[in-house]
Amino acid sequence: MTNHYIATVPVKFTDTDGQERTRFQRVGAMFRNTRNGDGSEFFSLKLDFPVAVSELVMFPPSAKDPQD
Fold first, then answer.
1. Domain of 41?
2. For the chain, what is the domain count?
3. 67 partner at 20 to 30 Å CA-CA among 13, 16, 22, 32?
4. Are 37 and 59 in contact (CB under 8 A)?
5. Is residue 8 a part of any domain in this protein?
6. Residue 39, domain member (yes or no)
7. Which residues contact 57 (CB under 8 A, 6 or more apart)?
8. What region, left, alpha or beta, does residue 52 occupy, with left being phi > 0 and alpha being psi -120 to 50 degrees?
9. Which pLDDT does position 28 carry in this prediction?
10. Quick one: pLDDT at residue 67?
11. pTM of the entire structure?
12. Is 28 contained in some domain?
């Protein structure tokens, strides 16, 4: 099992034959981490470019978080 994923955004373009296609532009990487202490898992997203912040950290929802 890998500990990281490549973060991309889809970019649509028209090729030389006039067909619309999609390529995926890399914008960063997401890493799986383990918290010291209780061993719970969390993810961090490292972006390749600044957008006011350069890292987002994701955690699984806790029991007190509202469910969608």
1. 4-59
2. 1
3. 32
4. no
5. yes
6. yes
7. 42, 43, 44, 45
8. left
9. 87
10. 55
11. 0.63
12. yes
Those residues with Cβ within 8 angstroms of residue 60's Cβ, 6 or more apart along the chain or in another chain: 40, 41, 42
- Any domain includes 48: yes
Q: Cα separation of 44 and 33, whole Å?
A: 7
The pLDDT tens digits along the chain (68 residues) read 678 888 888 889 999 999 999 999 888 898 988 888 898 888 898 988 877 766 666 666 667 655 55
DSSP structure string for the chain: --SEEEEEEEEEEE-TTS-EEEEEEEEEEEEEEE-TTT--EEEEEEESS-SS-SEEEE-PPPTTSPP-
Token couple for 34: 């383990």
Contacts for 22 with CB less than 8 Å, ≥ 6 apart: 10, 11, 12, 13
Distance, in Å, from the CA atom of 22 to the CA atom of 12, rounded to the nearest integer, reads 4
